[in-house]
């Protein structure tokens, strides 16, 4: 039933993406636990020999029928700033809370793998990138691995911003958005329901075997003190939850967090920028601010 709902939601919201995905097989939610299909990968590495590496963490892909993908992988082919790209995805759709090996805590597994790849590539500058729960992962691993910068698109933490009763009813009864910006209405509602589903259904199953709790990403970032990476957060200014979350970050960490408001009610800010033909420009700009000047010249 859940697969059916997600499949038809995707066909309504993103028909072109649904058609593309169905060429690779039937759309279905991945397995939360147990053995994954042979050949399932969780990391993609594109070593360009550059002095800057970008670690991109995929979101839960609720808007793509829960089918884990390497987010940002395609768009990086169009960037002008030289950089290596490392993409992490979570085939278990647990927002990286459980390891790919199904035996370890996700925060330990992916922190270790991120550090291993940082050492392997040996870049001077390292950047964490992510959208939604991938933005939460970017803040978490970017901080734990002492990266130089975080680029977050509507980073979904703390989860109380999305699953709180007030926000849930705001999302459900936001009829103004339903009639003026229907895609944003459906998108925000699905993300809200997905957060609740992950915490109350998926992670409860995992807790039977793991002492698992939702990461305190806020505490991790706050606790880093003067080692806290600078961050740029993009958000839709007509999305109440995303606006509230972004302003909370900027007010708590004014020295490190810079906000960029987009004229949209959507949660999926990379998709908005892509439609405006601005995503490449934005990523080039954000990465070049960290990369060595000699590496950003064409």
The N- to C-terminal Cα distance equals 51 Å
Just name the CATH architecture: 3-Layer(aba) Sandwich
- What percent of residues adopt helix (DSSP H or I)? 40-55%
How many H/I helices?
A: 13
Any low-confidence stretches, pLDDT <50, length ≥5?
Answer: 293-298
Helix-strand makeup class = alpha/beta
The domain count comes to 1
Assembly annotation: single chain
* CATH H-tier superfamily: Alpha/Beta hydrolase fold, catalytic domain
The third-level CATH topology is: Rossmann fold
Main pleated-sheet profile: 7 strands, mixed
Shape: globular
Indicate the mean pLDDT.
Answer: 81
CATH class: Alpha Beta
Residue share in β-strands: 5-15%
- Using the CA coordinates, give the radius of gyration: 18 Å
H/E series:
HHEEEHEHEHHHHHEHEHHH
Strand arrangement in the largest pleated sheet: 1-3-2-4-5-6-7
Total strand count, please? Answer: 7
Descriptive keywords:
298 residues, Rossmann fold
List the helices and strands and how they pair.
Blueprint: H1 2-13, H2 15-22, E1 43-46, E2 52-57, E3 84-88, H3 106-121, E4 125-131, H4 133-144, E5 149-153, H5 160-163, H6 165-172, H7 175-180, H8 182-207, H9 217-223, E6 230-236, H10 240-252, E7 257-262, H11 269-275, H12 279-288, H13 293-296
Parallel strand pairs: 2-3, 2-4, 4-5, 5-6, 6-7
Antiparallel strand pairs: 1-3
Helix pairs in contact: 1-2, 4-9, 6-8
